[in-house]
Input
Amino acid sequence: MKVYQHIFEHTPDALLLVDQTGRITLANAQAETLFGYDRSELVGQAVEMLVPPRFAARHVGHRPGFMAESHSRPMGAAVELSARRKDGSELPVDIMLSPMIMDGRHFTLCVVRDITERKAAEDKLRQQTAELQKLHAELKELANRDSLTGLLNRRAFHEHVAQMLRTARRRKESAALLMIDLDHFKQVNDRFGHAEGDHVLKMVAAALKATARENDIVARHGGEEFVVAVLGASEAESIAAAERLRLAIAAIKNIKSSITASIGVTTCAPQVHKREASLILEELLAQADRALYAAKNNGRNQVCHFNRLAQPGTPL
Output
């Protein structure tokens, strides 16, 4: 028996023996240290004295049920628990409950472990993980953006449009692709320098973003070329969208020389047969590029739709 008393007294966790009425009958030295009470202040008192007041009533209500159907509760349970010290301060704890019968009486052995340091380490780890996730998201966003204009870059555009085409196929909707090239942009760099050229590109990007619909995908495709993908647009609607963008670019202020753009447009009808989105996108880019080339050849500062190339005399 002395061996068991020695174990009870000197175990590194706080130990409390609680009877069926919820009264503390035994407490060890670590319980005194942990809770700040002398054991004479603990023995004979309701165990709820060690429970934060906001949980005490629930604990009292829960205790009879536990005593009636006693079961072990291991350390490391998912529920976060708190204990209350004599000075009113609280600390996070882990608790193991073990029912036992002595001399025909039912008791519960409560093993209480201070997990303040573990909680602090977990909180720090969660914070570090959150910071790393945020940094990863920021780096991913930076990797998807053109460094000058802030628009999606070519690679990200292809990824987003492939997803858009899959959505269009699922919804049985059309989609349009607009390829935009600034007219005589080289002259801007030659006359005013590359700083002004960069400024113009930023202004064009802002105009495109402001004019496009919220769900449209706008990107810088390279150099002075931009692309816009539009979900659910018919041929007529895609031409109208391109005209709005063309006019928005022509209306840009605060640049040293006005700028215009030629726009090639193509519209993808709702897909009946399943095809790889990347193949559809490759085809649309080729069609929009041909339409853009026609717009350039026809005098620039205009919109040309791929479907009209077979009818060169047809007005847009």
Residues 312-316 have pLDDT under 50 and may be disordered.
